[in-house]
């Protein structure tokens, strides 16, 4: 129940619907019992067993409830019979039954009507909080987790919570109250018979509970496997070109089919165990009814301590207990199954974000002096990828980072943007440790253009517009012109309103990169970070993109991570990295004169170009 309590906090904004649901359920339970009790006067009239009573009965306290109700009904029927024929009295009794069932079903509808707003509201808020948490968590979290598993938690696990946990909210009041009111009525009719019935309930309850003990474990396996095959699907869609190019369809199909086979087996095991709930509880219920028929029949036929009409009414009440008892039994299985889903959802919600803000962070709106990287060291796992690294990037200067793959160039971009936190040392902007800045203001000072152009399945206009909220069309067009993107955009079928497809796949690599640059230009940040922005482009596209980058970097502070050295020859400082350490730094001309690591990189690229 611990997970249930944590999920219930999402119901607080909708407590008015919960209150209205409880009120409706109280009346539903009451009229459910009265609907069954109303059979008794009809049976009395039908079998002509009504005792003639001409004096209105007196109320003698709760202990005399059964006799008072019976005598009051007989008095009323006697009065009506004297004034009209028996057929009219029978019609009145039938009308009473119809009215009771009408009120029962009216309140049942109202209860479901109000709980719908609560359930769907919780579902909405839970998904929204999960999405916010998904965005808030650092990039390092998703380098360890499968994206498909996260998707499964936001979709199927949240739905499982709705179907299992939140369905209990409907039962918490209605079904127990229905049972309580029914038992009160049964005790009023025959305490002896009711006591006999309840000797069997603990036994049947114990046998039913044995079935549900392994449901959480089985449900956990089902949900984990669902996350796994969704991950395979997500990877397949993302890498479809490579899969087709390498004829690897069968390899991925085998992985997917193996996962769905495990999902098939786990689901069968879970559902078959769950499906035992209803027939088992119904069987024990009918067995109890059979015992009541035998024992109650003895009281009617042999002992003659119970009237036949009351016994039939009692049997109807007994059977009425079966439905809520079955619902409660099914709900208990739902809790066990929902526990696994809630655990997976809460795992995300309760994950601590290591990239946290201090209590009162600094909101830095401008950049005036320098980015100062002081003696930092960093490791993703066990080995340090940066060791004792220091660098000063003054305002208006361009600093380029070069080196072989794995030398730590892109890591610096991840650390300055605070996608990761340094293990040792500090990174300061205008003398302020970036850990003391609010993440929003830090990233407001930075623009990022990466090697992989990350675009979204939306229009050109909306993709560029991410760089600035509420940007005007003129601002978007101006940014596109600076990035050498305006001409090709105007050639698209709908210009700036053209949808570019998933990840911008309707565009070429150069076009995608120029849109990314347009987005950065529109943001107009004082510090620009370019992470190998031209390395994946052909010569013509590179020239257009490089021209766009130079225009964008003019009079701006820039950290350029370069693969192609031809693109950074005009940088104010070039820093050469090797295995996370600075081996050389200077201008292009100075580094060539040193005839060291930088010269080797230039010569290698000359040979390959």
Mean residue pLDDT: 79
Q: Beta-strand level of the residues, as a percent range? A: 5-15%
SS summary, helix count? 23
Task: Give the termini separation.
Answer: 66 Å
- Across the major sheet, the strand order is 6-7-8-3-9-10
Per CATH, the architecture of the domain at 2-349 is: Up-down Bundle
- Morphology: elongated
Per CATH, the class of the domain at 2-349 reads: Mainly Alpha
Q: What is the CATH H-level superfamily of the domain at 2-349? A: ABC transporter type 1, transmembrane domain
* Helix coverage percent: 55-70%
Radius of gyration: 37 Å
Number of strands: 10
Broad structural category:
alpha/beta
CATH topology of the domain at 2-349: ABC transporter transmembrane region fold
> Low-confidence runs (pLDDT<50, min 5 residues)?
none
Largest sheet: 6 strands, mixed
Subcellular location: Cell membrane
Domain ABC transmembrane type-1: 19-337
GO molecular function: ABC-type oligopeptide transporter activity; ATP binding; ATP hydrolysis activity
Keywords: ATP-binding, Membrane, Nucleotide-binding, Transmembrane, Transmembrane helix
Spell out the key features of this protein:
single chain; 609 residues; alpha/beta; ABC transporter transmembrane region fold; Rossmann fold; 4-stranded antiparallel β-sheet; 23 helices; 10% strand; elongated; ATP binding; ATP hydrolysis activity; transmembrane helix; ABC_transporter-like_CS; Antibiotic ABC transporter ATP-binding protein
């Amino acid at each position: 129940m611990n997970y249930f309590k944590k999920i219930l906090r999402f119901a607080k904004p909708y407590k008015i619907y919960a209150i209205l649901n409880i009120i409706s359920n109280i009346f539903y339970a009451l009229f459910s019992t009265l609907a069954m009790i109303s059979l008794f006067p009809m049976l009395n009239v039908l079998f002509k067993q009504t005792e003639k009573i001409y004096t209105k009965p007196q109320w003698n306290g709760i202990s005399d409830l059964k006799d008072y109700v019976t005598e009051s009904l007989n008095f009323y029927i006697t009065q009506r019979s004297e004034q009209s024929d028996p057929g009219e009295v029978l019609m009145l009794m039938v009308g009473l039954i119809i009215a009771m069932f009408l009120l029962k079903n009216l309140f049942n509808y109202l209860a479901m009507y109000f709980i719908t707003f609560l359930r769907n509201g919780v579902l909405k808020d839970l998904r929204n909080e999960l999405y916010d948490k998904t965005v808030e968590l650092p990039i390092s979290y998703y380098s360890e987790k499968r994206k498909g598993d996260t998707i499964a938690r936001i979709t199927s696990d949240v739905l499982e919570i709705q179907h299992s946990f939140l369905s209990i909210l409907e039962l918490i009041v209605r079904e127990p109250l229905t049972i309580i009111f029914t038992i009160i009525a049964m005790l009023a009719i025959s305490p002896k018979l009711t006591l006999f019935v309840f000797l069997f309930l603990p036994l049947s309850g114990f046998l039913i509970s044995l079935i549900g003990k392994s449901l959480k474990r089985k449900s956990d396996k089902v949900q984990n496997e669902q996350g796994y095959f969704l991950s395979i699907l997500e990877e397949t869609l993302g890498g479809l070109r490579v899969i087709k190019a390498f004829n690897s369809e069968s390899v991925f199909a085998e992985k997917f089919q193996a996962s769905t086979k495990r999902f098939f087996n786990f689901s069968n095991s879970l559902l078959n165990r769950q499906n035992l709930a209803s027939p088992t509880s119904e069987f024990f219920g009918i067995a109890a009814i059979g015992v009541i028929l035998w024992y109650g029949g003895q009281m009617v036929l042999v002992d003659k301590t119970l009237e036949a009409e009351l016994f039939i009414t009692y049997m109807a009440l007994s059977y009425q207990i079966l439905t809520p008892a079955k619902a409660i039994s099914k709900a208990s299985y739902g809790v066990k199954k929902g526990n696994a889903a809630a655990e997976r959802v809460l795992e995300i919600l309760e994950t601590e974000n290591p990239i946290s803000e201090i209590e009162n962070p600094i909101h830095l709106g401008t950049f005036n002096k320098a980015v100062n990287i002081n003696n930092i060291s960093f490791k993703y796992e066990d080995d340090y990828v940066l060791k004792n690294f220091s660098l000063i990037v003054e305002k208006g200067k361009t600093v380029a980072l070069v080196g072989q793959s794995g030398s730590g160039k892109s890591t610096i971009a991840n650390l300055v943007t605070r996608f990761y936190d340094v293990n040792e040392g500090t990174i300061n902007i205008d003398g302020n440790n970036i850990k003391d800045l609010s993440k929003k203001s830090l990233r407001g000072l930075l623009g990022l253009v990466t090697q992989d152009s990350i675009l979204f399945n939306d229009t050109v206009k909306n993709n560029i517009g991410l760089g600035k909220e509420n940007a005007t069309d003129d601002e978007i067009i101006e940014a596109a012109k600076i990035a050498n993107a305006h001409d090709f955009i105007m050639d698209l079928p709908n210009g700036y309103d053209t949808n570019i497809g998933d990840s911008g796949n309707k565009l070429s690599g150069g076009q995608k990169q120029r849109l990314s640059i347009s987005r950065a230009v529109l943001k107009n940040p004082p510090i620009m970070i370019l992470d190998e922005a031209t390395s994946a482009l052909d010569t013509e596209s590179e020239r257009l993109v490089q021209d766009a980058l130079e225009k964008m970097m003019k009079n701006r502070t820039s950290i350029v991570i370069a693969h192609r050295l031809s693109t950074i020859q005009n940088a104010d400082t070039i820093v050469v990295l090797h295995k996370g350490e600075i081996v050389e730094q200077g201008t292009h001309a100075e580094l060539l004169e040193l005839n060291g690591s930088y010269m080797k990189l230039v010569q290698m690229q000359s040979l390959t170009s």
